[in-house]
Design a protein that fits this description.
The chain folds into two domains: 172 residues, Aminopeptidase, CATH 3.40.630.10; 121 residues, Alpha-Beta Plaits. 28% of the residues lie in helices and 20% in strands. The chain is built from nine helices and 14 strands. The strands form five sheets. It has a four-stranded antiparallel β-sheet. Helix 1 crosses helix 9 and helix 7 crosses helix 9. The longest helix has 16 residues. The chain starts with 9 loop residues before the first strand and ends with a helix.
């Protein structure tokens, strides 16, 4: 629930609260502000792309490789990320890949009475949850062979920051073992994002004949998501919970991205961020795949792609009480303007 009407900007200590204020509006204004700092005439050539369909899927994601000349440049700055915490200048250098699939169990022609048939009639829902339980071990780590996992060498959240960010209830432990960055970015995650089964509100004393789950897989930035999806499909297809086969249907894949950070644009960006914030920048990753980033990288493979912006990771993007801090917007704007000069 919003603390104020979402489409009416509301002042808060140090910032502004409104729907889309952080993810969308502040990103655009950081670019515009950096250009205004030079009176619209920055010391380098600039091409600007405003793309507003990312959350819905956009045909533009695949367009850049079809017209690479339009996107020719030495460096690209994408403002769809921000500092890992307010006041810590941050470059996002890696994006997880992703894949989707459906897994289904059918056992009966129709529901049958659990008193008369339960105990012998094969329960599709029980078979499905038994299969899903094999995807993680007792610690909550992904237990599917062939999915890449490595230690994370960048900056990450503290456990307390992550608990607050995710809204984890008191007393509930985090899943998995190892470093938090490893669990979030340089290792796999499998999430059950949907389940077709009788709802509790209309449940009847009957053996369930059919159940289906939608899974979302997130993978290491350098792992081919098709390879990872094949490993997950193989794991599920080998299962026979109570002797019952599963029907596994692979879905779409979205590759991750890992930036090459040793070039002149990254050196300039580090200097610019240091000037804007007065402290050394850190690097981190993001759990979402940005399809446009891969489209731009394919169009101009020699260009350096940098991700930094005004929406810090605690900004509640896409959620109630989304906000932007003016200090973050100012820092991102100054860093971008300084980057032009570098």
């Amino acid at each position: 629930r919003w603390a104020s009407p979402p489409f009416e900007p509301a002042g808060i200590p140090g910032g502004v609260r409104a729907r889309g204020i952080a993810d969308g509006k502040a990103n655009v204004m950081a670019h515009i502000g950096a250009l205004r700092a030079y009176g619209g005439r920055p010391p380098v050539g600039i091409r600007i792309i405003f793309e507003g369909q990312a959350e819905h899927g956009s045909a533009f994601d695949a367009y850049p490789p079809t017209d690479p000349g339009m996107f020719a440049c030495d460096a690209m700055l994408i403002a769809d990320t921000g500092n890992i915490r307010p006041g810590t200048p941050t470059l996002t250098t890696a994006l997880r890949g992703a894949a989707d699939l459906l897994v289904e169990v059918r056992t009966l022609d129709a529901p049958v009475h659990s008193g008369a048939y339960g105990g012998a009639a094969p329960d599709a829902l029980l078979a499905l949850v038994t299969a899903l339980a094999t995807l993680h071990d007792a610690h909550g780590d992904v237990a599917v062979a062939g999915l890449r996992r490595e230690p994370w060498d960048g900056t990450t959240f503290t456990d307390d920051e992550f608990r607050e960010l995710a809204g984890i209830t008191d007393g509930t432990p985090l899943m998995g073992s190892g470093g938090l960055g490893e669990r979030l970015w340089s290792g796999p995650a499998i999430t059950v994002v949907g389940l077709d089964a009788p709802p509790v509100t209309s449940a009847a004393p009957a053996v369930v004949p059919r159940a289906r789950a939608a899974l979302n897989l997130r993978v290491h930035t350098r792992q081919d998501p098709r390879e990872a999806l094949t490993a997950l499909v193989r794991h599920l297809e080998r299962l026979r919970p109570f002797g019952i086969p599963l029907t596994v249907t692979p879905g779409g894949v979205r590759p991750g991205y890992e930036a090459a950070t040793g070039g002149p644009a990254y050196r300039a960006a580090r200097t610019a961020l240091r000037r804007a914030w007065g402290t050394d920048p850190v690097h981190t990753a993001a759990g979402g795949s940005f399809p446009l980033v891969n489209g731009l990288a394919a169009a101009v493979p020699d260009a350096e792609i940098l991700l930094f912006g005004p929406a810090d990771q605690l900004c509640q993007r896409h959620g109630p009480d989304e906000r932007v801090l003016l200090s973050e917007l100012r820092g991102a704007l100054l860093a971008e303007a300084a980057f032009f000069a570098e």
